[in-house]
Amino acid sequence: MVITVAELMLKFRDTYRQDSATSETALIRFLSNVDLLVIDELGVQHNSNNERVMINRIIDERYTLEKPTGVITNLQSDELITTLGRAAVDRIMEDGKWVTFNWASFRINKGTQPA
């Protein structure tokens, strides 16, 4: 499953509605059990404490269940540590790898390519 932080936070906010069919715990349990979870656009969010707590809960639960979690971000490694905290980054990186994509943006060049 690939989900942006913005989508993730909307899903959590939906659980707070009185008429919600899903609880926060059920959402975390679901996200913790998918075979592979990729959290996209990390660092774009508001960096509120609530967002940090929710993302960390998911990462921690997935780590406990030995499920792989990927993160896509434009942040540098030190900025990611500031955003998520060292423990969460350590959990992701324990069996993971930091991969830097440093080529020109496809989106910027997309309009200049011949059809």
Total of DSSP H or I helical runs spanning 4+ residues: 6
On the 0 to 100 scale, the average pLDDT is 87
Low-pLDDT windows of residues: none
Distance between termini?
Answer: 31 Å
Structural class: alpha/beta
Helical residues, percent: 40-55%
Which oligomeric form is depicted?
Answer: single chain
Strand content: 5-15%
- What string gives the helices and strands in order? EHHEHEHHH
Outline: globular
The strand order across the widest sheet is 1-2-3
Q: What Rg do the Cα atoms give?
A: 16 Å
Largest sheet at a glance? 3 strands, parallel
Number of strands: 3
Give the helix/strand layout.
Elements: E1 2-4, H1 5-15, H2 24-33, E2 37-42, H3 49-64, E3 69-73, H4 77-84, H5 86-93, H6 106-110
Parallel strand pairs: 1-2, 2-3
Helix pairs in contact: 2-3, 4-5
